[in-house]
Amino acid sequence: MRRFLLCAFALMGGFALSCQVFPGAQQTAEETREGTLPAVAAAPVETVLLADKIAQIEGGRTPQKARATSIRRLVEIFGERHTGLSQWEIEAVATTIVDECARNGLEISLVMAVIHVESAGYHRAVSPVGALGLMQIMPDTGRELAREQGFEWHGEETLFDPVVNVRLGIAYLRELSDRYDHVPTALAAYNWGPGRIDRRIRRGAKMPELYVEQVMRAYEQVIDDPTPGASS
After folding, report:
1. Coil, strand, or helix at residue 132?
2. 118 catalytic, yes or no?
3. This model's pTM is above 0.90
4. pLDDT tens readout for residues 140-164
């Protein structure tokens, strides 16, 4: 597993480290909250938690042991990246990702793929359009998400708190997944902003593909070989 998890991050690390994320990521709060559309017809990607996969593979370990294994794997991944975080912060971020993915019903591997494409794990990443932090959240969107999730908002610096950033980013990805009922469309909206994606849907225009392909390529590298402890 470690070999393939690390491969997902190595695949496009140089691109994201330069903060060259795709333009239009996370539009303003006003666009984010535009009218809800009917669900997109295509079937969503099945969500199976990485912790559950590991538990099945390793002979039905308890949820507590599976959780600990997942956290340990993420600590290893972040430890290989230029995160700008202390060891304590890395462990806090890894724990938060595992727990928030379980709470929101999202795959750890999908969230890690988004983090990789957005920031390569560097917690103070800033995109050309002003998206911030590990999951590259726009300040207007972050302010609204913080209000919804009960976090105090201290301006843009709030999004450089890595634990807050991943909690808001995971909540936002869950919100978009529920809104579109289709993971690729949710990912396109995460990058371009739901307002722009809604307008494309109304016009019958083609969905943006490049960002989705980048994330899904990283995601597939994670899930291709779920065997834990794979040697590099």
Report:
1. strand
2. yes
3. no
4. 999 999 999 999 999 999 999 999 9
Backbone angles phi, psi at 2, to 5 degrees: -60, -40
pLDDT score recorded for residue 63: 83
Tokens matching residue 225: 């070989």
Q: Which residues have C-beta within 8 Å of that of residue 153, sequence separation ≥ 6?
A: 142, 143, 146, 147
The active-site residue out of 100, 118, 144, 175 is 118
User: 2-22+45-222: which CATH architecture?
Assistant: Orthogonal Bundle (1.10)
**d(C-alpha 197, C-alpha 146), whole Å:** 23
> Per-domain residue ranges for the chain?
2-22+45-222
Whether 140 contacts 69, CB under 8 Å: no
